[in-house]
Structures are given as structure tokens and as C-alpha cells.
Amino acid sequence: MREITLEERIKAELASYNGTMGIYVNDFQGNKVEINIDKEFETASTVKTYILGTLFDEVEKGNKNLSDKLIYTQENEIEGSGILRSLDYGVELTVKNVATLMIIVSDNIGTNMMIDYLGIDTINAFMQSYGFTHTKLHNKINFDIYDKLGTTTPRDYGKIFEMICKEELISPEASRQMLEIFKKQHYNSMLTKSFPQYFLDSEDTGEDELIYVASKSGSMDACRNDGGIVSTPYGKYVIVLFNKNFTDPIYYPEHQATVFGSKVSRLIFDQYLALKGRIK
């Protein structure tokens, strides 16, 4: 009897999915899953990962400082995720705090403040210089004016987390600082939706936290994306799940892209644990 491969199991899981999923997984042991990894997807909020990378690159070069102060003004007010829109104009925060809000609660106002601080050209130059050649930030976030925020591929998004995981993005210290920010990310609706919660919750169980995820997701009408690093007792792996071409634009926890993405994530997770640090 022949073995059913991991890719075949994933494709069987997606047989009734009406969208297109891009899947990239790297276990750092020479094994990868690569499905639609060079197709272009709308970034939605995953572009904020590249913006954070640009910030730390500019800090490393001496052009910017994490202690610089930014002020929330009406100019950057925008609908969508985050907490700054609930605060008064004139609130002053350090660049690091704005960048942290941009990642951990996907703050759209904080993102626009960071784009103004860094500049779109600088952000796009960072992407090109680090080899994310199919990734581009097109505009600031403004849903009344623009229907496109950014473009990327599962391969590019996987690569930036691979570099962070190996402490090769900008510098070891910058990579470690960015990892700590991604570990605090609040929206893991796809990657961890089907994980056993016991492994993720050291506060309630009283046990050491066995699993952590350092990630950044993103959703717009045209896409549902997630990706990052999953750390286990056997090691770490990078996983990217991007979705497009589905028919339902509404946002809710049981959206088909989220449900099927979480099933794929659990397949990968179980395989990695069963093989003690490998996916094949």
C-alpha cells in the first residue's frame, strides 16, 4: 500500500473549498510544502510585517530611532482595526509603541502613521533589497479612495519569517526584537483556530507554555491571509496560508477561508509533532 503524502492530504482537505489557497511551509530540515506560492495575493494587513522590517532596517542604518515620538492627528484617522481611533487626537507615542500596535492589534491608524514616518518608497526599497521581489506597498490605508493596499506572494511572506526565525533579517538583535512583537499578536484566527488550546495557555493550565506562534494575519474583502512562526518543543516551522477567489466577502469567525485554513494548519501541526520536528 502506497503512502498518502502530506500534499495529498492537504489537497483532499481542500477538495470542497471554493477559493484559492496559497500554502508555504518550511520545517528547516529540508522539507517544504509549496502550493500556489508564486501567485500574487492582496496583502491586506500582512503588509504590516514588511513595514515593521523597514522600521528596524532604518533604525539599524541610523536613519530612524525607536524612541522618536509620533502624534496621532485627524489626518491619519481611518476605519478598521486597532485602538488609536478610540483615543483623542494629540496622543503621543514612541515609534516602537506605534509599530507594536500596528502588529499586535493590527492598528490601521498606527500603520498610516508608520507609513508617513518611513515613506512608501523606503518601504518598497526595503522589500526589494531583502529579496521580497514580488511584494509592494501601493498606498496608505484609505478604503474610501483605494481598493488595493499591497501585493505579495506566499513565498515572499514565508521568506521574511524564515529570516526572522534564523535571526538573519537585518541583524540578530533586530530579528529577536521583531519576534517578540509578533509573539504578542492578538489575531491568530486561522493558524491556531484548531490547535489544542491547552498547549497555548500556560496561565490557565499552570504548565509551561509548550507552543507559541509569532505571526501576522490580514483580511480584506478579496483575501484572508495568515502566516508566521510556530514554535514547539521539537523546533520551529514557518507556515503561510493565503486565500483569494472565494465568494463570501463578509467577515466572521467561521468564514470558509478561515475554516479551511485552520484545517490545513492543524494537518501541518499534527504532522510536525508526530514526526518530532519534521513535516516529511
* N- to C-terminal distance: 18 Å
For the secondary structure, the number of strands is 11
| Main sheet specs | 6 strands, antiparallel
Poorly predicted ranges: none
Structure in words:
The chain has helices at residues 6-13, 47-61, 95-104, 108-118, 120-129, 154-165, 172-183, 197-200, 202-205, 256-274; strands at 20-26, 32-35, 41-42, 69-71, 92-94, 136-137, 150-152, 212-215, 218-220, 223-232, 235-244. It is α+β, with helices and mostly antiparallel strands and 280 residues long. It has a single domain (6-274), classed as DD-peptidase/beta-lactamase superfamily (Beta-lactamase, 3-Layer(aba) Sandwich). The strands form three sheets. Strands 1, 2, 8, 9, 10 and 11 form a six-stranded antiparallel β-sheet that branches. A three-stranded antiparallel β-sheet has the order 3-7-6. Strand 9 (218-220) and strand 10 (223-232) form a beta hairpin. The radius of gyration is 18 Å and the shape is globular. The protein starts with 5 loop residues before the first helix and ends in a 6-residue tail after the last helix. The mean pLDDT is 93.
